[in-house]
Amino acid sequence: MAPKLTELEKPSLLTTSSLFAKINIVIADADHKVAVLVKKILATLGCNRIFIVTDGNDVLHLMKEEKIDVIITNWALKNLNGIELATHLRRSLDSPDRMIPIIMLTARNDQKDISQARDAGITEYLVKPFSRKTLLERLYAIVEEPRSFILCESFVGPDRRRVSSFTLPPDPDTNRTYFERRPPIIVPKEQLKQIVFDDTPRMIMPDYSMKKKIGLEVPVELLINPMTVSHSDDELQKMQEEFLKTIMKDVEQLETSYQILITSPDNARELIARIQEAAESVKARAGIFGYVRATEVANQLSNFCRRYYDRENKYHLIILEKHIQTISAIFANKITGDGGETGKELMRDLARLIQKYLKRPE
């Protein structure tokens, strides 16, 4: 009798067939390295028609030339950002595809940002740093569990409820912005281009065209299995050294901008913007390679710069300095993971520092 195969040894359709070869995906991200990483992860599913662009307008031009099935976009893009891109696709009369699934892959994690993306018609929202598993889960949801599509004056996009619109009647209390206490009119997808937005909500049934294009059932185990994750991990490992070099450039920008800020407070607005930008970049990249605490500290630093920094409060320089020193130390000592109790105490110390010096001393 042949020996029993382990999960990683079992043959996988992901490696023996072109399962997702028919699916065309565009990745729109100003960070080319992250875009390449996403492309490599998707390639483990058999995707070989993947386009990378940095400008939202390029997505629209590409959609006129190619049949794109999925868009993965960052919030920050050149000229036309991710939110503007989604709004155009959902509402414009010359939209190439109003119902195209859109995954927002971004470092922005404020609730107001998530709400804004949802209201713009984003299908799935994924915060950087992302994992291979979470990215594959979002793709699985788009293929296997598509939602109904809602159209009215106040909202155009996938039903904001996760439960299918055809298993439960519309709930006006949780969908008041587009149901307005009236059930929607169900219309076929073929009438989409003729629909004129008014105060009457309309609904198009869930679109399984991607699933049909693949041509088979797509159980979650097929997308998210040890073989897939293992292949993705291999790609991550290959790119880790290059990514860490880029992260260290961000850390250098943090340190340099802070030193200039000390001597040139009149340029505080520009320098704080640089510090915030570098912190966002560290946050988006570090967690992919296991630097969990670096991601948390960078996120806290970014939020402080955006919300609280006051050039008139000299103690705010201490808050900046401690956060930047902490990020530098984490990478200098290659501290991955959460750092255990030491890592928790580190975050508590930084939180106490912010609490102590946030308000201007009397």
Please tell me about this protein's structure:
This protein is α/β, with parallel strands linked by helices and 362 residues long. The chain folds into three domains: 147 residues, Rossmann fold; 60 residues, no CATH class; 121 residues, Four Helix Bundle (Hemerythrin (Met), subunit A), CATH 1.20.120.160. The protein contains 14 helices and nine strands. A five-stranded parallel β-sheet has the order 2-1-3-4-5, with helices on both faces. The chain has a four-stranded mixed β-sheet with strand order 7-6-9-8. Strand 1, helix 2 and strand 2 form a beta-alpha-beta unit. Helix 3 packs across helix 4. The N and C termini lie far apart (81 Å). The relative contact order is 0.09. The N terminus is likely disordered.
Secondary-structure map:
Layout: H1 13-16, E1 24-28, H2 32-43, E2 49-53, H3 56-65, E3 70-73, H4 82-91, E4 102-106, H5 111-120, E5 124-127, H6 132-144, E6 149-151, E7 156-158, H7 176-179, E8 185-186, E9 202-204, H8 209-214, H9 220-223, H10 226-263, H11 268-286, H12 292-307, H13 316-332, H14 340-357
Parallel strand pairs: 1-2, 1-3, 3-4, 4-5, 8-9
Antiparallel strand pairs: 6-7, 6-9
